[in-house]
Amino acid sequence: MFLPPDPARWPAPATAYEAEAIRFCEAWLSGQDIFVLHTSGSTGTPKPISLTRTQMQASAHLTGQTFGLQAGDHALVCLNVRYIAGVMMLVRGLELGLPMTILEPSGNPLNGLHPAIPFAFTALVPLQLQTILEQQDETQLAILNSMKAILVGGAATGPALEQALQVITAPVFATYGMTETVSHIAIRQLNGPQATDYFTALTGVEIGTDDRDCLHITAAASNFERVQTNDVVEFLTDPPYRTFRIMGRADSIINSGGVKIQPEKVERIIQEQLATHGLNPRLFVAGIPDERLGQQLVAVVEGIPVPDDVWQAVQQAIRGQLGPYHVPKQIICADRFAETPTGKIDRKQTVAQVTGQA
């Protein structure tokens, strides 16, 4: 569905999803001041959050300023408009005067799109970008390369994907944010000479940490209220802080035999090692109940079995970099991961499915 900036030219919705997008746009244009959205549920039970029009406007205009978006730039909206990432694509279009092509979320939103459409801006989840790149379609690559900015959020980008996306000449940015901060408050470029491994807070965003080294955020998009996260970060400079690396989540730490393990560190090494063998499955590390250890560390991969010799090389790499207590005791293959409505991995549900421990 194509929505030009002039609502009088909007087409009638052809599907229930298009109707839902139109309803939000009409509510926005009517001047509605409070919008209730739900968190994605990737780290807990989804919960409703009320956001004000002022907060959402502040976020939209900051995005426009950050990426040089101008009225008339064409936006591709292919994230779920029931959640913050998709909703904010609509708000950006309405606030910044961006014509929008709205597509119901799919694995590859570029399928069927014509390269003559001059898209300037889009936001994707990592799995969508991975699917696009795996097709090695020159037409789809041309669509991406025409853009001013491509945002990738909702989940971490693995090393294999970051290597694969170097074929894209348009700037690709990983984003950091959440519903409470009205989408992203920090970015890092993933490709080209300006690629980096750390996030930089956007203009006007203040950041710091609590006594757990977990990030807190204050910004116009948060109504200037402090939002406390459970993300453990490492700052790269002295105060005032602007740049940071995400080390993992405080609430995801696994206690195995009294040793506290940050799973994200282990996951990164597994991804890097599998990529050297041409394997790029989605994966995560989890703790499952164990009588002796309390929690046994395991790796869960999606869709493909990992050969024994490759897994032994992975274990050796983890042992060498992090020590023996960080080596998963086993690797479990799941046919397909359970997902949240926004396409994030539902780790708890996936573990329950593969272990039979609901």
TrEMBL record:
Q: Which Pfam families match?
A: AMP-binding, AMP-binding_C
KW Calcium (keyword) present: no
Tell me the keywords, alphabetical order.
Ligase
Q: Give the Gene Ontology MF terms in alphabetical order.
A: medium-chain fatty acid-CoA ligase activity
Ranges of residues in domain AMP-dependent synthetase/ligase: 28-193
Which family is annotated?
Belongs to the ATP-dependent AMP-binding enzyme family.
This chain's protein is named: O-succinylbenzoic acid--CoA ligase
**Which species is the source of this protein?**
Arsenicibacter rosenii
